[in-house]
Amino acid sequence: MNMELHDLRINYGKSSIPDGKLHDNPLDWFGDWLSEALSASLNEANAMVLSTVSDKGMPSSRVVLLKAFDERGLLFFTNYNSRKGQHIALNPAASILFFWPELERQIRIEGLIQQADPAISDEYFYSRPVESRISAAVSPQSRIVPSRSSLEQMYQNFMADHPEGEFKRPAHWGGYWLSPNMIEFWQGRRNRLHDRIQYRRIGNGWEKCRLAP
Ligand SMILES: Cc1cc2nc3c(=O)[nH]c(=O)nc-3n(C[C@H](O)[C@H](O)[C@H](O)COP(=O)(O)O)c2cc1C
Known about the structure:
- It contains six helices and nine strands, in the order ααββββαββαααβββ.
- The longest helix has 14 residues, at about 25-40.
- It is about 30% helix and about 35% strand.
C-alpha cells in the first residue's frame, strides 16, 4: 500500500447541519451553499462532475460548468453530439456532483436531463467571447482529430470565413437542464461522523431524511 496515501487523513469540523436547521426546499439550500462557495472565492466553484450512462449501462463522468439554476433545475452548456450528448439522447438519467473541499462539503444530485429551449442557448451563446463561440462552432467534441494543428487550422479557417465574428449558434451546441429528483448535502464532521441530509422529490414537494455517514 502507498503509505503517503495511507496516512492522509483530515479531521473535518468547519460546519455542521443540526436537525433543527433543515430547509424544506433543497434548492434553497443548494442556493445558499453555492453562494457560500462563490463568496469563498473557490477556484471554479461552479464546476460540477456530470455522470451519464451509455446505452450499454457504462457510466462516464466529466466536469462541466453550472451556468444557472432555478425551479427547472441546473443548467449547463455543451455539444449535443458529444459523448455525453449521445448518452443523454438515449438515457436522460444523470447525476451531478459538487465537491468543495475548502468548505468540507459535497452535494450529490440525481435526475433527468432535457435540452434547454433554443432561446436560452442563444442568449448564453451570444454572451460568450467570440473566441469561445468559434471553438464551440468548430470543435467536433469527443471525436478523434488527427492532430493539435488540425484543430488550430479548423479554428483559423472558421475565423477567415467569418472575419466580422458574426455567425449563428450552431444547432449542435446548447444547454441542458438537469431536473433533480434527489439532492444530498454532505458536511464533513469530526471523527468521520459526518452529516448527510437527503431529499427526494415526491409529487410537487420534497421528502427529507438524515442518512448515516
Ligand atoms: C473545469 C472544467 C470545466 C469544463 N466545462 C465544460 C462545459 O461547461 N461544457 C463542456 O461541454 N465541457 C466542459 N469541460 C470539458 C468536459 O469535462 C469534457 O472534456 C467534454 O465536455 C467532453 O466530454 P464527453 O466526451 O464526455 O462528452 C470542462 C472541463 C473542465 C476541467
